[in-house]
User: Fold Arginine decarboxylase from Pseudohongiella acticola.
Amino acid sequence: MTTQQPPAWSLDDAQTMYAMDVWGDGFFSINDKGNVCVKPIEGMDISVDINDVIAEALAEGSTLPLILRFQDIISSRVKRLNRKFREAIEGAGYEGVYRSIFPIKVNQLQEVVAEVIEAGREFDIGVECGSKAELMAALPMIGSDTLMLCNGVKDHVMLTMMLNAQQLGQQVIPIIEKYSEFEQLMILADQRELKPRLGVRVKLNTRGAGRWYESGGARSKFGLTVPELVRLVKILEKRGQGDCLELLHFHLGSQISDIQVLRSAVKEITQIYADLVLRGVSVKFLDVGGGLGVNYGGDYDNPESSINYGLREYANVVVYAVKEICDERGVPVPTLLSESGRALTAHHSMLVVPVLGVHRPDSPPMHDETPPDSPSVVSRMETAYEEARSTDVTGILLECYHDAREAREEADQLMRLGYMTLDQLAHTDSLYWSTCREVLQKLAAAQLTPPPTEQLELEEQLTDLYLCDFSVFHSIIDHWAIQQVFPVMPLHRLQERPDRRAQVVDLTCDSDGKIDQYVHGHSNTSWLPLHSHKHGDAYHIGIFLVGAYQEILGDAHNLLGRVDEVHVYAKEDETGNFWIEETLKGICIKDMLSQVQYFPNDLDRRMSELIRKQINAGVIKAAEGTRILNNYTKRLDESTYCTTEVVR
Ligand SMILES: *Cc1c(COP(=O)(O)O)cnc(C)c1O
Assistant:
């Protein structure tokens, strides 16, 4: 018999296995140590080993799970988007400019918004807000040159604040979503004898593609119909205030999966723009909304996770379509705006989750002596296992598997009827899994195409569950809510071939608390190759591209809450090429409990009463009671997640 050498394994293979080229966007790769590293600064080769960042964060008192924010990536993405538009504008000979507008709902964290504004300063970037709280957060953040657009439902309180901002000289433009907002705005403006600046969101006939297609089209809950737009324009004209209408806007929904849909919408709105300009309403801005997609990897059949275009094509489609129609209609081109959110922030943050333990279906293997008085099914299982071990012939392997499967069913029935002892059942069960593993290993080595259905069945049965310290519902809720795929991979040991088939499950007591779609090579699979893990050893898994929407949408299922985070900058002259600018603690147990009306004082009081009663009754000694109480109290200040420490 020849011993089969496993095929050679290289870091390139790891890079391909986890499809880093598809989703990494040039930021993420693997270094010589087999560790995932990041090159966050556009155009510079400064590489930061993610494991060094984790080590330093832990040394400074952070605990896992941990969000790492690479602030430089935000800046790189802002620059990349704006430069692509500049190139498109130059290439097309477009006699106007582009400004990107950051919708803060994507990630309202102050540092994130500040980083976007800072990086976008040279490109005149603006911001967008969609609610009262967002408006109040953003107003004091912007200078007098920053364009700020206000979408969403607006009451008179918000409209007043927007007019106040205009009085102060800020470039704040309410985007009328409902006709009544226009009426309210004009009343408020008249009371103050102001000429308001405003924009209009138009309900286009073009519908978005993908999950959020209802954000556009006639059934959308947002925007004015064309008759409403005309009515609004006529009223402004009658007042001699046609120039108040400065902006036309549409939004097709997030993660536009098909660029043709965007092209069609841009053409539609540009025709409306041209008509307005020709009748004397000189609209300045054309805003193509959000929806610029991010490639999370995987196949194109999953529109939530992949897109059929890049930044360059997106910019070209917008610029050329607007120019073509403006040229045809003989009107000057507008200033172009896009409200790209996801595309600016998704890449910058990642979640580090430690593996707490592994549940292997086939463990522990126990091939002891046959228990006494075993029924014949036990020896049939033993035979199946022996045969599987001694053959390489596909047909015989499949037969062994069939026999084992049948024997297991029979053993199960005998147990129910009381004809099998626990020892006998454990022995049979263990042999069943060993047979499965033997058969699968040999079938996989034979590389049959297509693989027999038994092989697929075995792969599913033999997938390990990797229990990880996080909550799907808190940190990647879109995976649960809309089956979005996020890139997941180990952060170290990549010089070793990952030899386990694994599914990542979280801490929640919810069977949906798992990751069941992975980017794996060029397709999506329900399992991911991971390295084998020994309880107590550090094995860290990264979940990437979580910088858009996930944190703020996340919930508190099982009272697992906000995780610790660190903000990292790359810098060449620092040890490891990075420095941690800020460390934020996640929510502690007592704050989490207060949100559901359990207050620390009350909990402490009840706990000490309970303990005192047992001391008085002589159940425990007083000193032990104090220790138990102190331990309880101390933990209230700690993280809602598990510790990775194990007792030795
Ligand atoms: C959500 C939203 C955006 C941002 O969309 P992305 O897909 O993140 O780019 C932009 N504009 C409006 C009106 C929105 O509602």
The radius of gyration is 30 Å. The chain has a mean pLDDT of 93.
